[in-house]
Every structure is written in structure tokens, then in C-alpha cells.
Write a structure and sequence with these properties.
The chain is rod-shaped and about 145 Å long. It starts with 12 loop residues before the first helix and ends in a 5-residue tail after the last helix. With 282 residues, the chain is an all-alpha fold. The protein has a 3-stranded antiparallel β-sheet with strand order 1-3-2. Helix content is 68%, strand content 3%. A hairpin with a 3-residue loop joins strand 2 and strand 3. It folds into 3 domains: 92 residues; 61 residues, no CATH class; 54 residues.
Length: 282
């Protein structure tokens, strides 16, 4: 079977049409000659058998036309060892094409080896990380999960402390972009500092970030801190309402007990001023 590079053969048009031997041939002989050149090109050693019957078959001329034109066609071939024949020009083109193909194949092979070596050097830190993490690979292979974990470690941003998961942080930043509140460098510093305080207080940082991601919160909140904030605000609101109710009740009570209209009016005026100045007024 012909090799891949033997599926195409150069044909020099000017040389073919300008050859006196080719132009002297009958069109049928010319076609038979070209068929033999093609058969020679796709052979293992770029040669043909010298047997007349085989040549009549390979040329496509058949016995009758071969007997008529075979002698003229064979003038373009020379005998070689092993009882075979060969066209010298075709053989030279064949050697050139084969050399080019082998050179290209060798270059591609070398490029592939260099690429494999580069990937291996790049993956060596991963192998060391697996060893340092206490993960044993008896078969010398790395599982998909281990590879993903190691890539996540390798790709963790430099500003991110080791106690924050890189994948969780990426999800948090993606959520911020989705709500159109992308993070600046200063925002990252502030959020990480806040998470550091939560961590010192015993908070699960992974849970804190995941809660903000799930709820679409721009900021991060401690587990107890966010709820306590709401309770304190509610307590302040209730306290203000109660202070306002007591102040108003006092105003009406003193107004009903006044001895004169002027005194009552003055008393109500002072009480109203007191309500306005009190912290509970709204």
C-alpha cells in the first residue's frame, strides 16, 4: 500500500510536453507511459517489474497495444538489479519527495517531544504538591479531582490568604459582577480584612462567602452579626416609639390639669419643645 506522501506526484508540464520521446508517442502509448510512471512512484523502491505481461496490465494497454507500443515506452526506463526497471527522472523526484516527508515527520516528532517535556516540567510542581499533601499515587497517575485541586492552588490570586478557598472567592467575585458591583482592589482588601476578623471570632469563612453568594449580597456578614444588627435596629426603633408615646401622653396630661389658659398654653409649648429635643422624637 502506498504511503501518505506517495498519494501525490509532481508533474512538470513543460518538461512533459517538451520531451521529444513523449511527443513521438501515440496518445495511447503516452497514456500507458504515464500509468507506468504512477505505478513506479507508488512502489516500495520506485521500480517496476520487467515482465512484459505485468507491464501490459499496469500500463492499461493490454496485450495488443502493448505489443505495438511497448518497445517505444521501455526506451524511457533502465534495467536495475533484481530484474526490475526504473525511470531515472521519476526516481530522482521520488527520492526528493521522500526526504522532505521524512524531514517534516522528524521535525513534528521533535516538536511533540519538546511539548511533552515542557508539559512534564510544568506538571512536576503538581506531583510534588501531591506528595507534600500526603496523597499517594501508586500507579504514578493523578486523578481528575487531585488535578483540579492542585490547579486551583496554583491559580490562586497572590492577594488571597491561604485560608480562603480560591474557587469560592472566584464565585463571590462572579456574583458581584453579576449584580453589577464588581470589586476594586481596595474592595478586595476591605472584604478580606473583614473576613479575617470573622475568622478570629471563630466564623466559618467558607460558609460566610457561600451565604453572600447564595443571597446575592454585596458585602459579607458574620453568622450572628447580621441577625444581631437587625435586632439592635428594631430595638432602637421600638425604644424611640415608646419615648414618643410617653412624651405625648405627658403633654396632654399636663394640659388638662392647667389652672389658666395662658399657663396651659405655656406648659404645652414647653412640653412640645421638650419632645422635639428628646432623642426619641422622629
Amino acid at each position: 500500500m502506498a504511503a501518505k506522501w506517495q498519494l501525490w506526484m509532481p508533474r512538470h508540464i513543460d518538461r512533459w510536453r517538451g520531451s521529444p520521446a513523449v511527443r513521438a508517442m501515440h496518445p495511447a502509448a503516452r497514456d500507458g507511459y504515464w500509468e507506468l510512471l504512477c505505478c513506479q512512484w507508488q512502489s516500495d523502491d520506485c521500480s517496476l517489474p520487467s515482465d512484459g505481461m505485468e507491464l501490459s496490465e499496469k500500463s492499461g494497454l493490454g496485450d495488443e497495444l502493448w505489443a505495438q507500443y511497448g518497445a517505444r515506452i521501455l526506451r524511457n526506463f533502465e534495467a536495475i538489479e533484481g530484474g526490475r526497471i526504473r525511470n531515472a527522472v521519476c526516481h530522482q523526484e521520488w527520492l526528493t519527495a521522500k526526504a522532505k516527508y521524512e524531514a517534516n515527520s522528524s521535525a513534528k516528532s521533535e516538536a511533540g517531544k519538546r511539548g511533552a517535556d515542557a508539559r512534564w516540567k510544568h506538571d512536576k510542581p503538581m506531583a510534588r504538591a501531591i506528595k507534600n499533601d500526603g496523597k499517594k499515587c501508586h500507579t504514578g497517575t493523578v486523578t481528575v479531582t487531585e488535578t483540579k485541586e492542585l490547579k486551583a492552588k496554583a491559580q490562586a490570586p497572590s492577594f488571597l490568604p491561604p485560608w480562603i478557598s480560591a474557587s469560592t472567592w472566584d464565585s463571590y467575585e462572579e456574583m458581584r459582577r453579576r449584580i453589577r458591583k464588581p470589586m476594586t482592589d481596595r474592595a478586595r482588601e476591605l472584604v478580606i480584612a473583614k473576613l479575617g476578623r470573622f475568622r478570629e471570632a471563630g466564623e466559618d469563612i467558607e460558609e460566610v462567602l457561600n451565604r453572600s453568594i447564595a443571597n446575592g449580597w454585596q458585602d459579607v456578614w458574620a453568622t450572628e452579626g447580621r441577625g444581631s444588627g437587625r435586632n439592635r435596629a428594631q430595638e432602637r426603633s421600638d425604644s424611640n416609639d415608646e419615648a414618643a408615646r410617653r412624651a405625648i401622653a405627658g403633654i396632654y396630661g399636663r394640659a388638662s390639669q392647667g389652672s389658666s389658659g395662658g399657663e396651659a398654653g405655656n406648659g404645652r409649648g414647653k412640653d412640645i419643645e421638650a419632645v422635639r429635643a428628646s432623642p426619641g422624637s422622629v
